[in-house]
Amino acid sequence: MPEFQSVRGFHDLYGEELKKFKHVSNLIREKLRVYNFEEIILPVVEYAEVFQRSIGEATDIVQKEMFTFQDRKGRWLALRPEGTAGAVRAYVQNKLYALKPYVKVFYEGPMFRYERPQAGRYRQFHQIGVEVFGSLDPVVDAELIQLVYEILSELGVNVVIEINSIGCKVCRPSYREALVNYLESVEGHLCEVCYDRKDRNPLRVLDCKVPTCKEAVKEAPKMVDYLCQECKDHYSKLKDYLSLLSIPYRENPYLVRGLDYYTKTVFEAVSTDLDITVIAGGRYDYLVEELEGPPTPAVGFAVGLERLSMLLKEIPPEEPLYFVAPFGDVMDYSLAVAKALRLEGRRVELSYRKGGLRKQLEFANKLGARYVVIVGDEEKAGGFYTLKDMETGEQFRIEFSPAM
Ligand code: ATP
Ligand code: MG
Q1: Whole-prediction pTM value?
Q2: 127 lines ligand 1 (CB under 6 A)
Q3: Quick one: pLDDT at residue 167?
Q4: Quick one: which atom of ligand 1 is closest to the CA of 302?
Q5: Which of left, alpha, beta for 316 (phi over 0: left; psi -120 to 50: alpha)?
Q6: CATH number of the domain bearing residue 382
Q7: Alpha carbons 139 and 90: distance in angstroms, whole number
């Protein structure tokens, strides 16, 4: 093993994995273009307080998963564990609300969480996040879910979209109370962590993966039964819109999210093949105010790019590669051929290795070339090159005079 290793949970992205990753990213960006979202590039580092305030002190992310450190002046900074908090901070700081009736932005980049690394779970991973600021209308929630659905359908991955409403300031307290009472009645069956968080963060108990906890919450009260009239109407309108758009969804009355800032709509896209969440989001109507901006309802989601790429079975083939293979003293002529082909927009690799025709064909195969452009003394002297189609084995003579 080489002496220098990347930091645990921090991975290199390259080769086939990166091709899938880029395919996902490009497809999402194209979707965001037609939905008229504008990109925003946010810092990777924020004051730790930005995340503590938004995500919530009692959450796993803030309690255990943040990379925090002090700068030279002793201020606490954090590598961003997610994008929404920074997006809201930027929205408030730059007064983006002053420019438009509502604001639709997206960002892409690395996120950092100190979690136990495993398949599809890293300490540095990438997200594309989408946020809409300034509308309480459930049509926004519906359009975001539509966007998620279109992204996943076009990528051909099998997922189910789960939705729920987790209420607001008005109705959540009475639900919370009912839930805490219930959890106390089954506390003997809860895992240690949930036993601990049933008072601090009771909603998260519904999200626990430990089988005994899963069993224990089966009869737990449901938020949907406690929604106030406004939240009830909001949720039912959302479902109407989804039906109108023919978007298949599943109501999961126990769906919650691991961050405190959510209100009303929450949703997740869960892979039916691997049972992992690839996209998650929801509404956060108080967060802008919480970060000292004007009261502004908002809703968004984030795509885990590594997770989603993992689910891709195949990606569209790349455009064909031309491998220019000189053998003999013909590099000048070969350079001219490569230049001309590239100017026509073709993807061209000029062989940097010397060798006879057989060797060059071997190189071409290793690089996955579709065509080999054979250039030897005979070609140079006669003013042509030989184009070999590696798939069919056919060869063609192409006239060529270098315009040098
Ligand atoms: P999980 O329940 O899997 O821990 P989460 O609820 O913490 O996910 P979010 O904060 O909602 O995840 O982030 C949105 C998406 O980002 C997730 O659905 C997932 O695809 C991706 N994601 C989150 N954490 C990681 C990680 N450590 N490594 C890779 N991808 C991640
Ligand atoms: Mg997590």
Answers
A1: 0.93
A2: yes
A3: 96
A4: 14
A5: beta
A6: 3.40.50.800
A7: 25
